[in-house]
Amino acid sequence: TTEVPSSIQTLLHPDHIPIPAAQASTAVFYSISNTQKGLAGVPFGSFLLKHVIESLQREIPTLNTFVTLSPVPGFARWLGGERAAEKSEMLSEETIEALKVLDDDHWYEDEDKAQGVRAAMLDSARAYFLRARNAKGIVLDPVARFHLRNGAELHQLNFLGDVSPNGLKQSHGLMVNYLYKLRDIERHHEAFVERREIVASKAVLGK
After folding, report:
1. Residue 150 DSSP one-character state
2. Mind listing the pLDDT tens digit for each residue in 72-91?
3. What global pTM score does this model have?
4. Rounded distance, CA 47 to CA 150, Å?
5. Cβ–Cβ contacts within 10 Å for residue 9, how many?
6. Environment class of 25 (CB within 10 Å of its CB; exposed 0-12, middle 13-18, buried 19+)
């Protein structure tokens, strides 16, 4: 592509017209998984991603941006817990009030409702990624753990990035981009593994 994508439906739409490789500046990974349960916890991901990035750069020299378009499988469950709590430590009362729109199964089809909840949804996503932690003090989302451990940056939060039934069920449509820069992969990996730090862009941090 020529830009970082924010929607899986747009990226994979049947009418999407591929651009010539020589015009591409961005490579998008949208389906990355560990296929062997016996290899769980073995950090092969960073090695494989480095290899693929280097191979793509040799094949298509115009590529300079390498990102994922990733799901957020635990977000809706976590958000439901925060909304149901007597007092949320992660979300403000104003945010929780705005999120009541989610109780309408078709909220995302109503432009006014969607735009009305957008800011609250993104604020909630920032809390989920940047502050919420499990009992071990690690970020809750399994996809985030995979990519951050492999040296990625949490680059962009995409409101209504996946409006499929599964996307709405698991994350209220939220998707994210993780950015891989070869020169930063090792440093970001060490920050996450050794200090449990999440490397995030200014846009995600709200700066």
Report:
1. T
2. 999 999 999 999 999 999 99
3. 0.92
4. 8
5. 13
6. middle
